[in-house]
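ligand=nicotinamide-adenine-dinucleotide
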Amino acid sequence: MTSEPALRLGVAGLGRAFMLTLPSLLADPRLRLVAAAAPRAESRAAFEARFGGRAYADVAALCADPEVEAIYVATPHQMHRDHALTALAAGRHVLVDKPLAVTMEDGAAMVQAARAAGRHLIVGPSHSFDAPVLQARDLLASGALGRVGMIHALNYTDFLYRPRRPEELVTDAGGGVIFSQAIHQIDVVRLLAGGMAESVYARTAAWDSARPTEGAYSALLSFAGGAFASLTYSGYAQFDSDEWMGWTGELGHPRDPADYGRARRALARVAGPEEEAALKSQRTFGAVPVPAPAPMAEHFGPVIVSTERGDLRLTPEGLWLYGHEERRFLPAPTGRAPRAPVVDALWSALREGQAPAQSGAWGLASLEVCHAILRSAATGEPVALSRQVAPGTP
Ligand SMILES: NC(=O)c1ccc[n+]([C@@H]2O[C@H](COP(=O)([O-])OP(=O)(O)OC[C@H]3O[C@@H](n4cnc5c(N)ncnc54)[C@H](O)[C@@H]3O)[C@@H](O)[C@H]2O)c1
């Protein structure tokens, strides 16, 4: 065990994202939750009752708290820029949940502000922090399998039918599957292929006029060095690709295949947008008990990586390696909370001075791919990329 002091984290936004990351934060002795900001009085009271820290009504007051060392920005996408800039101006490091921002201008301003302040900006959690993804990244980086040639990533979920705030169904405000879901797949695939995507060719679909934003896409990414990757996603709540992941859910919990159609059934009982937003807030901190960390790693659907010397298939328990004459299973490390690698990244950055793989510049490069998917789908043409970086670029 290290003698370095625990990280002192403040949280902006006590909603769904915080609730999903919280079990992993609580399980980690390297980190203490010391303060928060939340507009709702009940959330603030729940935070203080549970953690004994200070909960503020606004993010500027949180950032001014002298005990806070880093801020986890878990507010809606469109607020990431203001909240990150406020934190950086106060000299705090920032962990901002994905996506970095909605617009490239906002994202670039965040990267610039972090550099100017000399503070770390880490973008996560995204599924590129999942233990099997990091295990695959390390194996590929060892050179044992030769060069990466092709990656297929796909995911079929009920994303579009989970309870949403109204702006989560408006693409220009960062709604739909591109900014909230493609960003995970892009991060995963870029990390496995080395980060330097060169172009994107894509199609998107918005098939439900009652939820008029992108619900599905397919994209082909070309990488420097010749590798290519296909990314496919559907959030229309029909086929569920957890069926191909041994019925382990995205968050590492077992799923019940008999519970078919649950998201659509629940939504059908909701009277309108206000009631739907209220339903979403019932899944946030203070409204429901904090669960124990999930028993298995998180995942983002099937991912297969083809290399010169074998195919690698990611599962929530580890990697299947299919070589030329034999196949073997390489178990992922066990006994850690699913989002422990996010704390690892914060710890190495703040206590060991090591630039995080998923830095601000990395997040901006992934955001560029999101915009390229939308542009390619709108024009029917491939889109060239210009903001790509390798992992660990500050
Ligand atoms: N990594 C993941 O697994 C994951 C999962 C869900 C959401 N997210 C990301 O987290 C972010 C938030 O999404 P969500 O689904 O949690 O939304 P949410 O609505 O559940 O939570 C957002 C929270 O921010 C609070 N908030 C709003 N304005 C605020 C302000 N000015 N100051 C402080 N708090 C404020 C709201 O009260 C709410 O509790 C999004 O960027 C989303 O992409 C990540």
